[in-house]
Amino acid sequence: xxxxxxxxxxxxxxxxxxxxxxxxxxxxxxxxxxxxxxxxxxxxxxxxxxxxxxxxxxxxxxxxxxxxxxxxxxxxxxxxxxxxxxxxxxxxxxxxxxxxxxxxxxxxxxxxxxxxxxxxxxxxxxxxxxxxxxxxxxxxxxxxxxxxxxxxxxxxxxxxxxxxxxxxxxxxxxxxxxxxxxxxxxxxxxxxxxxxxxxxxxxxxxxxxxxxxxxxxxxxxxxxxxxxxxxxxxxxxxxxxxxxxxxxxxxxxxxxxxxxxxxxxxxxxxxxxxxxxxxxxxxxxxxxxxxxxxxxxxxxxxxxxxxxxxxxxxxxxxxxxxxxxxxxxxxxxxxxxxxxxxxxxxxxxxxxxxxxxxxxxxxxxxxxxxxxxxxxxxxxxxxxxxxxxxxxxxxxxxxxxxxxxxxxxxxxxxxxxxxxxxxxxxxxxxxxxxxxxxxxxxxxxxxxxxxxxxxxxxxxxxxxxxxxxxxxxxxxxxxxxxxxxxxxxxxxxxxxxxxxxxxxxxxxxxxxxxxxxxxxxxxxxxxxxxxxxxxxxxxxxxxxxxxxxxxxx
RNA sequence: UGCCUGAUAGUAUAAUGGUAGUACGACGGUUUUUGGUACCGUUUGUCUAGGUUCGAAUCCUGGUCGGGCAACCA
Length: 553
What we know:
Number of strands: 25
Number of helices: 12
Distance between the termini: 49 Å
Mean pLDDT: 96
Oligomer: single chain
């Protein structure tokens, strides 16, 4: 197959570089998360991009933790990030940390001071902000800007040695206070933070800023293509400036548009708020856009990779319909999930002409999408069955292919039945449905000659097992909660989780495997929740089946 | 008022001066022991005004609209 697939703009850059013999054709990318939260589907896009690029062009990818702010970073996050990247199916060449380079970064800073390109500033944060000017007015230099190299060297060493409290001094690059690009107006390189670092402990009390750590780390690792999101475009000039002045490996930064998805939020800050304020059960709540949440919900790694492939990579702002993610998981699960029957909202159906106490064993295949069905399982059948309440109507409309008095349906993998009547309880609610079955219509051995439009699922009352089933809906009521008036949490969907404590499942489901997807026929795809136990089975609905039946009138 | 970016069906994404294509969605149909799947079909698009050219989504100029930038965050 030589199916021609078009390249995205980053692949074009890489191919051009390879063609030009840049770096001897070597490709080395990196995925550089800050370990201050859990990874979400937006990170998955970056992961697939970075690792995918390396795979495609015989390169490698480093996993580098951008841990330059000790007050926000924790080992718990490091561990979850590694787990998520692995689960997505990628292997990094090296596991690295920006904090591994603190000594080297310190030397880089000394070098810049020595070149007269950095100075220690005693101003407060407010003063520095004020002196930076505004986008339309240039900044103004202060008295510290003209300190001698010797004085700067000494002061910076003292900063490192812990002689000053937090905020007393910073190290700044001496570039241009009138630069149109605000990031070039003498940006901060180091700040004092007497804080414990999750890896370097108390060794340091000064920590480099992002701009004086990221590009330098890229250069140290000899990253060829440093890919990040659009908000870093204005940082690129600084990225290049430091590399040039330091005379280190010329890594290049390229930017793509981050992923936005409808009906969710995609920033660690907001996701953390949802967790901390208990709007969700945790970072891995199945409604969260986190990788761990999607995994617990029943999404497969393959479906997420496919999603990242389909959304593409470009430089324009985008808002992806969450429906595309749902399409990807349905497409995957349709081919792999075993079919089972479960009744979520039960009502009893009694077959009046079926003998009391009689049972039969029906057979159902595991997966009709696969040749041979991938084997099958036995399904016990008896006089009393649970069926879905919505599969019966007292006054069915014209195209209702389910039950109503006088209507016939096929019970999946069993007999055709005809509805003869029903009973209501004291509240006027339908409590039992009465049918007769057609003995000649047994599945696989049907000589009745009868053809019905509808097939419904069922579970034998005396053989049914119970399970808790959790139905998830979108977390927010609006497409883009972040762009709405007021707080994004005002737009949370109050009905995003519906718990059904007593659903009936066919007995074979006690053998359900954790991590495997099942299709509850006609209801959707489900998977075992992490809190499920043999005594109390708990299933999460991953996604519904596409519903082509639109009620009319 | 400055600088940086971007603009192609509803949503994404191709077409790299030469027939505007693909996917998801929507709509309609065929098949079906899941109103699922599969298959077939239909629908809708180059922000705008000029210019260059035999020919412009693509190149040039002006405008319009969107996003980002003034954290001791990344």
